[in-house]
Write a structure and sequence with these properties.
Blueprint (H helix, E strand, L loop, with lengths): L1 H13 L17 E10 L4 E10 L2 E11 L5 E12 L2 E10 L2 E13 L2 E11 L2 E13 L2 E11 L2 E13 L2 E11 L2 E13 L2 E8 L5 E10 L2 E11 L4 E12 L5 E8 L2 E11 L10 H5 L13
Antiparallel strand pairs: 1-2, 1-18, 2-3, 3-4, 4-5, 5-6, 6-7, 7-8, 8-9, 9-10, 10-11, 11-12, 12-13, 13-14, 14-15, 15-16, 16-17, 17-18
Length: 304
Amino acid sequence: MKKSSIVLLLIIVLISCKKSVDSSIPEQNNSFRIKTTTTQIDNESSLFIQDYIYEEDKLTEILGRYKSNESGELHDNYSIRFTYNLPIVIAETFIKYSVDWVPLGRFEYEIINGRMTKRIKFEMNSGVWEKSRKATYTYIGEALKLFTNEIYSSSGLKLFHKREYKYKSNVLDLCYIYETDHGNLFLHRIENYSYEPSEIMMNSYRMSDSVIMFRIKKELNSGKVIHLESYGHTSPENELILSFSQDFKYNNNGLLQETSEIKGYNTTVINYEYELGNGNISWFYSPEKEMDLDFSSDKKQISF
C-alpha cells in the first residue's frame, strides 16, 4: 500500500510539467533530448527512474520504474504511452499491479504548430472514460494570451478558472487570475512580475484585501536559474513563510543536470541523462506553467 501511494505521488509530481521562462528545460539542446531521470527521496529506500522512449523524433512512452536499495532489482511502476493522429495526441497511463498493467488515466492533447492548444483529461467511471478537465490556450503571436481550465463532475461543469496575461516590452508583466463562486466569475488574484539582471520575482496578490498570497524568487546566472525560493501566506499570522527551495546544476552543454529540492524535512534530488537526437517533449509542457515562476516542477515533467 505504501509503495502504491508513492507511485501515484510520483506520477502526479514527475508528470505535471511546468516549463520555465528561461532556456534551461531538459528537452533538447543542439540535438540532445532527455533520456532518463533518476529521483531519490531522502526518506525512501528506493530510486525512482523514468525512461523516455522515442520513435524517430517523437516520444512514444515514458516508463517509470523503481530500484530497491535492498535487492538492487528494477521493478516496473507505470507507463505513459503516446499515440499520434495529429493534431491530436492521446496519452494513456497505466500502473503495474503484480503482472498486470491497469489503466490509470487518459489525456487528449491538441497540438498546433508544435504548441499545445487544448488538453483534456479523462477518468474511468464504470468502465467508461469520462471528461474531468479541459484546458484551452489562446496565443497572440508567440505569446500566451489566455488560459482557461474547466473542471467537470458527473452532473456537468463544476468549476471554471481563467488566466489573462499582460506583457510589457515583450516580457510578462501581469497575470489576472479568475475563479468561480456559485457560478459567478470573479477576479481572485493578480500576479505581478519584476525583473533584475540576476533575479526574477513574482508576487501574487489577493484582490479582496491586497494580501500577498504567494511569492516566487528566482536567482539567475548567465540567464539560467540556479536557485529558487517559494513562499506561501500563513493565516492568521498574515505573513509569508518559505514553502520550499530548489537548487539547479547544469552540464557542459548547458542542460539541466540536477535539481535538489528542500521541503520541510525532506530533500528530493533528480538527475537528468540525455542522448543525441531530436525530441518533441516540449509539445506536452503546460503553456500556463511556462509563464509561472514556480520552477518546482522543472524536473522535467509532462503536463497531466
